[in-house]
Amino acid sequence: MTRPSLLVTRRLPQVVEAQLAASYDVALNRSDTPLTPAEFREAIQRFDAVLPTVTDKIGPEVLDVPKAQTKILANYGVGYSHIDIEQAKTHGIAITNTPDVLSECTADLALTLMLMVARRAGEGEREIRSGVWDGWRPTHLMGTKVTGKTLGLVGFGRIGQEVAKRAHFGFDMEIVVYNRSPVAPEILARFNARQVRTIEELLPLSDFVSLHCPGGAGTTALIDGPRLDLMKEDAFLINTARGEVIDEAALAQALMFDTIAGAGLDVFEREPRVNPLLAQCDNLVMLPHLGSATQEARRAMGLRVLANLNDFFEGKTPRDRVA
Ligand code: 8YV
Known about the structure:
By secondary structure, the protein is of the alpha/beta class. It contains 13 helices and 12 strands.
């Protein structure tokens, strides 16, 4: 039997590429540059399966091809707001993602951002590297204590719960949750958390607000100017979800006029471009979409994609099928 053909759109950890190549007729993207829309269209006509990442924008312009060969988009990543699900369904293309295996590392990174921005770690590092540190003094780079503060979580799925675990057990934080659907009382009880009904209710209560909802049309600019105004003046906003969830222009304004204390961003509206206003804000820590960027998570994500592909081509429903 001929092996299904598979295009992998970016370089993956070596062990993952090797395992994919053992089961599929694999085309690797050795240059590791994102595919152009024209290249992606061609791929949809040529390959049985495509393994895309967040850097592939997959809408009608690439899916609407005369003779599609691709039957599955086995996404490398848990978020899939870069894929137009309705279009993919129209073309009879299945979609899978990679949940669970990156939750801990993404939660670790949310905590990294919280600590960095509250304790002014980015500013301190810039000071040393630029050679202007002139020594210890009692009032130097005083930040904000994290331990014992209130953390508001927007979205309480797998990653949100991992953040709550770290914040509650590690930093003795009080956890408040906003989630579209009701969270089971026994899950809230694990972190002594309480669920509020609206984001408007959550924001004024929180010393830190951390976003863990999906991206896409339903959450675009969820955190906009009026909602930023509801945050405390000494509160911090953290985003490891998707860039579009925050109105970046409104955030830049809030940071510049100190209507909030600071922010930590791992994701941006138009990655890899960053709103130049943000770069001017010293009370902002920015990381280049590193949420799942550990050896362990990136390997596990690849193996999860492989399991999804194997199920699909064996005629089973992949465990991570999302459409
Ligand atoms: C990935 C992510 O690095 O899983 C996600 O949704 O944002 C990151 O873990 C990225 O999506 C790779 O495609």
